[in-house]
From TrEMBL:
Gene3D superfamilies: MFS general substrate transporter like domains. Keywords: Membrane, Transmembrane, Transmembrane helix. This is MFS transporter. The keyword Membrane applies. The chain crosses the membrane at residues 12-38, 50-69, 81-99, 105-128, 140-160, 172-190, 220-243, 255-275, 282-303, 309-334, 341-361, 373-392. The keyword Membrane applies. InterPro entries: MFS, MFS_dom, MFS_trans_sf, Proton-linked_MCT. Pfam families: MFS_1. Residues 12-396 form the Major facilitator superfamily (MFS) profile domain.
Length: 411
């Protein structure tokens, strides 16, 4: 047995629309941060590693806060959590605009914005969807939410570059902070929380995590998600600067991020659709393997606008297509009652990978004057993650969270 599905007073289509807009605003803003790499470092005199560290801290704080945000959403309702997160997110981005040095930029862009992203994240949105949507439709709706996030990235990349060109990077961040405040009224549509059913225990955070961690497939899923974060964060933050280093214009860098977001819409929807029809763990293994091939091909060919856009389109298809599959497996394993928290734990691993990818990119560039070593590491990690996902078993953990249940047996 699992948690009963909450029945929101607002019609389900409106819940999904509001959640998708929140996901688009939140992820679109975060996806545009790479556009600020050059103007911020040049204006403030920061090194690439110092800026990369601020973004790395952001990803790590996002990951640390995500399980707690999901846990609060499970217990107190997604709407309240998202509204609070929207306020924090806007405050963090506004603080970035007026940060004069490395320390304040790390605090505003890293700590405050990282917490805001977690609390207003698409992970909390998907937890709400997981409770409101019937099981047979969850993977597809997760794909819709992920596609909406990608749509935000597609829109915010040219919007962010346009703001920078028109107003400068500081006022661009002020305008983006104002847009983030839209999350607060939209969150009203996602009110509600998971309700326990008779016989189900209301497990504390650590007890639920301990029981879930005994499930071997969950452990493999958490480990493999690390690589997704490494790839995404490194490319998102350092790709625009890398293309400028290769002789292309900053506009090509912004459109490359936009193309990733556009094709990610297709990849996310396709992933959600296939997740209801094929073994999710094998789909995940295929995605990571294809990422490794795409990066290898990009490095072997001369960098040009064509190869940049083709690489962006390919990576876009594989970008967040891991998310509906990973979230679907977590919900399959343990049901929707603890989905926000347990997906948040998996996402923490994702963000540790993001932290390393962003920081290592800046460190390697400052040390060697190039990003080549990080690209090669991305290939190796993609192959390793593909191998890790193959043994995962896509089946429900019997009696998870029930009062009479023992911790899930190891596999």
């Amino acid at each position: 047995m699992s948690a009963s599905v909450s029945r929101p007073a607002i019609p389900l289509p409106l819940v999904i629309i509001a959640g998708c807009i929140i996901a688009a605003i939140g992820f679109g803003t975060r996806g545009a941060f790479g556009l600020f790499t050059l103007p911020v470092t040049e204006d403030l005199g920061l090194t690439r590693e110092q800026w990369g560290m601020a973004m790395a801290v952001q990803n790590l704080v996002w990951g640390i806060a995500q399980p707690f945000a999901g846990g609060f959403a499970d217990r107190y309702g997604s709407g309240r959590v998202l509204a609070f997160g929207g306020l924090i997110y806007a405050a963090g981005v506004l603080g970035m605009a007026f940060s004069p040095d490395t320390l304040t930029m790390t605090l505003s862009a890293g700590v405050v914005t990282g917490v805001g992203i977690a609390v207003a994240s698409f992970g909390v949105v998907m937890a709400a969807f997981g409770r409101a949507v019937p099981p047979e439709k969850r993977s597809f709706v997760f794909g819709v939410a992920t596609a909406a996030s990608s749509g935000g990235q597609f829109l915010f990349a040219p919007i962010g570059q346009g703001f920078i060109n028109a107003f400068g990077w500081q006022m661009a961040l002020v305008w983006i902070a104002l847009i983030l405040l839209l999350i607060v009224p939209l969150s009203l549509a996602l009110r509600g929380r998971a309700e326990s059913v008779p016989g189900q225990a209301d497990l504390p955070f650590m007890q639920a995590l301990s029981s879930a961690w005994g499930h071997g497939s969950y452990r493999l899923l958490v480990v493999g998600f690390f690589v997704c974060g490494f790839h995404l964060a490194f490319i998102n933050v350092h790709m625009p600067a890398y293309l400028v280093q290769c002789g292309l214009s900053p506009e090509v860098g912004s459109w490359t991020i936009s193309v990733i977001g556009l094709f990610n819409i297709v990849g996310s929807l396709l992933s959600g659709w296939l997740g209801n029809r094929l073994p999710r763990q094998l789909l995940l293994a295929s995605i990571y393997f294809l990422r490794a091939l795409a990066i290898a091909g990009f490095l072997l060919l001369p960098v040009s606008e064509v190869t940049a856009y083709v690489f962006a389109a390919t990576m876009g298809l594989l970008w967040l297509s891991t998310v509906p599959l990973t979230a679907g497996l977590v919900t399959l394993f343990f049901g929707p009652r603890y989905m926000g928290m347990l997906y948040g734990v998996a996402f923490f691993s994702h963000q540790v990978g993001s932290f390393i990818g962003v920081w290592l990119g800046g460190y390697v560039y400052d040390a060697t004057g190039a990003y080549d070593l990080v690209w090669y590491l991305g290939i190796l990690l993609g192959l390793a993650s593909a191998a890790v996902h193959i043994p995962i078993r896509d089946r429900t953990v019997a009696n998870f969270g029930m009062k009479t249940a023992a911790p899930a047996p190891a596999e």
